[in-house]
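Ticket reopened. Same input as before:
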Amino acid sequence: MTVLAAPSTPAPAPAAATVRRAVQSRVEARAGYLFATPALVLIVTILLAPIAVVIALAFTDYQLGAVEWAWIGLGNYERMLDDPVFWRSLANTFIYVAIVVPGSVVFALVVAILVNERKKTRTLYQIIYFLPVTTTLIAMSVVWHFVLNPQIGPIAALLRSLGLPAMDVFGDPDLVLAGLATIGIWQLVGFNMVLFLAGLTAIPRDLYDAADIDGADHPWDRFVRVTWPMLGPTTVFVVVTTTITAFRVFDTVAVITRGGPLGRSEVLLYAMYLEGFQYFDIGYAAALTVVFLVTVVALAVMQAFFLDRKVHY
Amino acid sequence: MAALEIDTVSKSFGGSAVLKAVSLDVRDGEFLTLVGSSGCGKSTILRVIAGLEPQDAGAVRIGGRPVDHLRPKQRNVAMVFQSYALYPHMSVKDNIAMPLIMQRLRLAERLPLVGRLSPRRAKVMAEIDGEVGAVARQLHIEQLLARKPAQLSGGQRQRVALGRAMVRRPDVFLMDEPLSNLDAKLRVHMRTELTDLHRRLGVTFVYVTHDQVEAMTMSDRVALMDEGRIVQLGTPADLYHDPLDLRVARFIGSPGVNVLPGTVTGAGVEVGGAQLPLPVAAAEGAAVQVGLRPETLSLDPPAGRPVLKIRLSATENLGAEVFLHGRADGAGDSPIIIRAPLDAFDRARAAGRLDGTVTVAVDPARAFVFDADGRRVGRRPVEAAVVRMPVPAE
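Engineering reply: fixed in the latest deploy. New output:
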């Protein structure tokens, strides 16, 4: 307000205006909550409530179809500590993740850089590498089972014709996880490649031109000084999504190995499935799910608060 | 420091010719500007000089030495990009040091850990640090050396890009619209800084811009390009006062040149009823286009000079001068702008000569006549043109 205007304004008016403004902002706030309600309801019923139910179930001895159940506190978690199947599943899952994540990320990055340099055949290669992503892993597991079959599979036939012993990948306790991880990598490379391609396209051409003029024109220098740092955010995203996907390995185990041989391919999700839907021990399965959830959430948090900060410049 | 020769260079992209046998000699230590609208090929020339884009035909020589077979880093040119193209993950210091590191350290010495094993690495890095510091001081950015480009303002990024170019002491400085990402005020300031830098370094500058003001104010010589050819090469004053082509007359100067339709007569050129006694190398009765710079139209009484009648539509008072917009009676009703000093405007108004229409005097010596294809016909001697008006603030 200007000084000149002040005397001509009646004294009560500003007060009335303030009241009116306060009422209005309260109305606006209420309307705001009203508009947000549908989304809030959806988030609670679809996402938060089921998680809360799982967490609650993990404290019970509920069996599927049982009439009576009781709170057993941390009973399920105590049982877990003494359960060799849980520890084996956890270890196997981590080994699987430790193979699949570096394998599929590095392989996808190499493929993406090679495909990115193609001009005419780029789309063709993109489609070929993306095909495994579009297929049903259950169906492809059957195919892989056949391909790697020691008696009738083409790989075994090839090895035999070279005079080598046929490998029984899914029957050999030392090979089974590596075999499953190979299928995991095969399925993930295409998806990760597409993400890396998007990241590569977003790197400004000027930077490569500047690098050429500055003398960083050796392919190694271009990669280390421009491509790799500029792909930082993409890489973090790819690593985190791949890790979460790898943690969820289930289809191939369920179809091909069923945890065998000798429990060497038992993984977390498969153990969960057995406890919940084969032995109907819902309480224990819920506790396993909570462990799984905590691991995955920890990864996501790590991305948001730690890694992301290092790669955004 | 070196002269630069571009010898009948051609370049096509997928069937469309971007450069059509362009030849250009840039003198040692000269500030040469390539100006033109977008798509005229000016940036492509720069990229050919730098070696980023191989030409289809022709040769480029730097300091008399052919460089066509050399890679960009071997040509000893530096380039400042419109986007600055700073490495976003590196500090200002590392950005500036980059060309020197790549020049002086071997591949193995540049590796993260292995590199430290080299006994000479520490010594070389100390030298580089010293040179980077010296360049940073010259550009007044020594307090920014530890920052990342994202933490800098546009003007500061610009200086870092300049520093990265200066540190290697190039033979030729190439600049691709370096000021177009800055706000108007900073752009004006950086213009003087760049010309200052050019004077201090004494290096050959090739500067690309679409802004005719930058071209006029900074350059020793300007090459105006259109459709892959150099239309005219000359000093800023040449291009302003003696354009050889209608495209040059239109591109240079703000507000733009007035273009009126005229006819060749026995005595010269007739435009909007005014007889301009100009010797024109064209057949009588031929249609021509007459270019009149806005400041050559005088509001003062004609004193025997040919006159144009103009219906006024708007007046813009800029303080020291006034722009009068209107249409020329009898000359195809063409839009026309008059640029008058404030005192002349006041005199005309006091004398009652601005009543919706105005009669302006034309100076035939300062009119340009172009044929139907836009080529200049009836050209005056160059000296007369240059003497006429001072060069706009060089």
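The CA atoms of residues 209 and 380 of chain B lie 29 Å apart. Chain B has two domains: 4-237, 238-388. Please confirm and we'll close it.
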